[in-house]
Specification:
The structure is a homodimer.
Chain A: H1 5-18, H2 28-35, H3 41-51, E1 55-58, E2 64-67, H4 76-84, H5 91-94, H6 96-102, H7 108-126, H8 129-135
Antiparallel strand pairs in A: 1-2
Chain A binds a DNA duplex through helix 3.
DNA sequence: CTAAATCTATACTATTCCAGTATAGTACTG
DNA sequence: CAGTACTATACTGGAATAGTATAGATTTAG
C-alpha cells in the first residue's frame, strides 16, 4: 500500500525539471547529485519518464532531460502511472478477472474501496507540478 | 500501492461475521469454505484480527470467531491496520526519519500526498461494516 | 478424566517484487 | 572520429508475499 522508491525519485526529478527555466536540460549525473538519487538508477527512472512522454531527452555532449510539456500539464498521477502503471489500492480494482474468481461484483467492500480510490486518483490528477513548484519555499 | 491478499481475505471474513446474528460464532473451517480462503491461511488472518481486538474467539468444540464489538464500530481502516499496520501511501508519510535523509520537510510533493492520504484514511474510517452489510443485496 | 475439536503461536518455504548495478549499444557534438 | 551522454535490457541480492506446517493450549462432551 505504498508508492515505491523509484516513484519517489521520479517525483523529485520531475520537480527539479519543473523548476528549471523553460527549454533548459539537466544531465542524468547532475540530477542524481542534486536529488540524491543513485547515479545508475536515475537512468532507469528517466527512461520510464521518457517512454511515458513526460520528459524529453537530448543525447550527446550538453545533452540531458527536460519536460516534454508544461509543468501545469504534468500531475503526480502521470508520474505514478509512468513508473508503476495504473493506480489500484486493491487487486480487484485493477484486474476485474481476478476479482470474480473469489467474490461477486456486488461485494460492498469493493464498491466502497472504488469510491475512495476514485477520490484519491482525482486528487493525484489535480496535483500538477506547476502548482507544486509554486508552493516551494 | 495495493492492499495485500491477506487484507482482502480479512475484509471478507469480517463482513461474514458482521452478517451473523449477534453472539453467533463461526469456525475457521466454515469461514474458509464460505469465503474461499485457504483453510490454513484463515487461521493466521483471524489471529491478527483477534490480536487487534476486532474479533473474539472461543476454543474447543463449537468454538469459533465472532465480532468483538458492534459492526458499526469496525471500519475498513481497522481491518487494514490489523493486517498491515498504519496506512501510508508514501514512505515519508510513514517514517519521518527516513524522509529527512533525502528531502526537506518543506517538500511540496509530500505535503500534497499527505493531504490526499488524510482524505483516504478518513474515508476508510467512515466505512464501517455495519454500513457495508446494509448495502449487501 | 480423557479424547476430540478448535484456536494459538511461531517457524518454515517457494515465489515474486524491489532497488540497484552492469553493460553493450546508439546518437550527437566538436 | 573520439568523447559524452542517453537507450535498452539483463542481472543480482535481499525483502516481502502468500501460503504451509506443526507443536501446544483450551474447551466441551461423553
Amino acid at each position: 500500500m505504498q508508492l515505491n522508491q523509484a516513484t519517489d525519485y521520479a517525483f523529485r526529478a520531475v520537480l527539479h525539471l519543473a523548476s528549471l527555466p523553460a527549454g533548459a536540460v539537466v544531465s542524468a549525473r547532475e540530477l542524481a547529485e542534486a536529488q540524491a538519487i543513485p547515479p545508475r538508477f536515475v537512468l532507469k527512472i528517466m527512461h520510464a519518464l521518457t517512454r511515458a512522454g513526460l520528459v524529453e531527452s537530448r543525447r550527446g555532449p550538453a545533452g540531458g532531460f527536460g519536460l516534454a510539456r508544461p509543468a501545469a500539464e504534468i500531475s503526480l498521477l502521470d508520474v505514478i502511472e509512468a513508473l508503476e502503471g495504473p493506480v489500484a489500492i486493491h487487486r480487484c480494482l485493477a484486474e476485474r478477472e481476478a476479482c470474480n474468481k473469489h467474490c461477486t461484483s456486488e461485494c460492498p467492500v469493493h464498491a466502497a474501496l472504488r469510491g475512495l480510490q476514485d477520490g484519491l486518483v482525482a486528487g493525484l490528477r489535480r496535483a500538477t507540478f506547476a502548482s507544486l513548484v509554486a508552493k516551494k519555499p
